[in-house]
Amino acid sequence: MKVSTKEWIMVGSAGASLLAILIGLLFFELTSVNLSYLTVIVVGLFLFPFSGYDYWQQNKIKKMEDQFPIFLKDLADSLRAGVTMSEAVRTASNSDYHELNSEIRRMSNEMSWGVAFEQSVNEFMVRIKDSSLISRGLAILLQAYKSGGDISPIMTSVADSTILLQNVEKDQESSMTEQTAVIYIIQFVFVIIVIILFKVLLPVINSGGFGGEFIGAQSGNIDMQYYKGFFFITMAIQCVCNGLVAGVTKNGSLTSGVKHVAIMFSVSLVLFSLFILPSILSVTAVSEKYSVAVGETFNIFGTVSYDSDAVINEKVEAVLGNNTFSGYTDASGDYSITVTAPDIRGINDGIVRVTHDEQTGEATFTYSVR
Question: N or C: which terminal CB in the chain sees fewer CB atoms within 10 Å?
Answer without folding.
Answer: N
